Amino acid sequence: MAEDGPRPDGAGARLGGLLVREPRVVAAGIEVLADALVRQAVPVEAVDWRPPPPGTEDALAAVAGLPGHAEANERAVRRMLTARPHLVDVRPAADVLGLDRGTFLHAGPPLGWDGASGPMRGALVGAMLLEGLAETPAGAERSLARGGATLEPCHRHGAVGPMAGVVSPSMWMLVVRDAEHGGTAYCTLNEGLGKVLRYGAYGPEVIERLRWMGAELGPLLADAVRRHGPVDLLSIMAQALQMGDELHNRNRAATALLVRELAPDLAAGDAPRERVAAALRFAGGNDHFFLNAGMAAAKAAADAARGVPGSSLVVAMARNGTEFGVQVSGTGDRWFTGPAGIPDGLYLGSYGPGDANPDIGDSAITETAGFGGFALAAAPAIVRFVGGEVPDALDATRRMYEITLAEHPALQIPLLSFRGTPAGIDAARVVRTGILPVIDTGIAGRVAGTGQVGAGLVEPPASVFADAVRALADTPLTSGAPPDGGPASAAR
Questions:
Q1: Collapsing DSSP states into helix, strand and coil, what is residue 454?
Q2: I want to staple 221 with a disulfide (CB 3.0 to 4.6 A). Which of 26, 90, 171, 458 is the partner?
Q3: CATH assignment of 85-295, given 3.40.50.300, 3.40.50.80, 3.50.50.60, 3.90.1710.10?
């Protein structure tokens, strides 16, 4: 006969107290069961978990069994988190990347003209016009279709580019050096919002702005940075997170801090007052001006973690408007790709999902290094730009701790009691948990020349992480790694 209350012989205690208190229910990936319990007023704690994709079990077991796998991940993420990126110069791409007049870089994994999406084609057309390789958009398209330009990924050259990410020889680049590990990364100057080259627009106003940036803004910034000395970007980023940025789609505070840092050195130069005023007005009026510096800082940090044998740390996430690709530390420069998805978000004016191009850009390097979408909890105001509610931003960041190897010691989130941002995506954890990295991004119009049509959130295809884990399981532990396990790009 069942008895009420605790058993005198202590059996209830031996059963973990199950007979003397209300049970707690945790539902992992079983929505039907969880929903049924909720309808019966039973408290349920839902866990965002899915079983590993079929066919990945052996690869996960093999990676987990790699000698020194945990130590390799620890070494790789430590290198990422101890990077000290500094802005040290601003110079033309032809000088720092060695680009000749017929070579263009682009965002994401490798692609050719035939596989390029609308905004990528629009940006390449604009680059042809900017470099004087074509007189009309139609002429530029014909030349590109005939192979009139060499196309290479930004990542291959230690660079990153937002959205289409097209870099041509005359564009000026931010030069960011990692003072701890010695690597160098590059990114273009930010054009602002609206109809800009990175979103695939190439009208006369776009080309005119780019030519002004090359003739005026780039040299002025170069002079200011050299006069100032290395600018500590990590310090600016840490402060900006305290001020409401997440450093991907919201860079208002970081931009203000960077402009404040360089303004005295801009004013101290010999340039005419009106030129300095125009440069400050442009930078100060463009809330995303810091984005490109932050991307280069993230690239420098991620590259510091490259080439560690046996490590499943993700060192690049990038999209070219057609494919989404990742690279992991232990498999060298190999790309693992899948179809790029359409972001889910808010649209400008009369635009809607039918106008959106699949996800595009190297800017997911920010999430790779532990900010951007991974720091949504630091920027509640971002939900007004990408959709959702403030609790959604908090939940997104908390979820990312499940797939990362560490918390960033310098980038801290006030709303989470100054907990460090989740940093260092582990491809094996992504596969094991089924939790995908969250990326906040702009949305480019699918038709070349349209420009930006919105902003939102996007997830990578799960298959790319499964492919990376399988490849890592088959990769010799000495493959493609520097002798000290340091960044493959350090000798660049």
A1: strand
A2: 90
A3: 3.90.1710.10
